[in-house]
Here is the input.
Amino acid sequence: MKKINRLFFGTAFLSLLLFASCSDTSFEEENLNASNNLTESDRVSLFGNMSEDIQFDGYYVGADTLLFDYRTTSILDVPPVYPETITNDEPIWFVNGAGTDVAKQYKNMLEIAEFIGRPVVGIHNGTKEGIADVVEIILPTNEVVEAAIEKSVLEIIDTDTRVLLLGHSQGAFHLARSLRSLENQLSNSQLGQLMVETIGGAGMWFPRGPQYVHYANEGDNVPKVHGVLTPGALTGNRSVIFTFDDEWYDIPPEIDTPFIRVHAQIVYLRNRLTFAEARTYAPLFGSKKINLDNL
Here is the structure.
């Protein structure tokens, strides 16, 4: 048994090392500038003499890459990124994966808005790059982004505001930890107000209560070794897990790796259902796994 455990966690570590060393973005990086119509106190520079990305951990990311300190700002006051065509005006609060700085998260937010047709606000999971991001999953140390998630959720409990909490890759890990913390602060009916979706998620222990939809690409090792497809994973009561088999075949050569082809956000977005449709497949008890090819 000990040999099996060592093998499993060794495989998990190597897979997560690969996962953290690759950017989760589907876009090429370019500099993004904040809007010029804000006062100096409202702006946060993303480039130049500012320190590393981790200083923005837990910050809210809004339109035009504007950043807001979660400790002093309500997420409801953050201007979202809007799609060209809105199909649902209920916002998405998006937590990014590892190796993703603010500029890359903002581009991912644009992609999410256009694919899903909903306004998007980011909750930034700051990156330390490489092995440091892996350690964050194996030995959880980052409580800042989780505090931002919890504060945001508490603002909408028992109100008419409905949002979708969306976590990609390591972002799903932080969502899961935040929800487990909130489990001790909220009633079952309050937790039931939350809508949660993970794509290629590295979270595998979700509490009962929220409405869950999980997506796992069969070629993606992240949900297999540290996510909803891991043996013994707790995916949330009445959760539905959608699997599919797809690759990003027209990936730009400069970011092409076997890992990115199956783990990139765009692969998941083009295979998802609307949250409302996905939840129609939820079981009465436990969890249910469905291959999208069989629908």
Observations:
- The chain is about 30% helix and 15% strand.
- The longest strand covers residues 211-217.
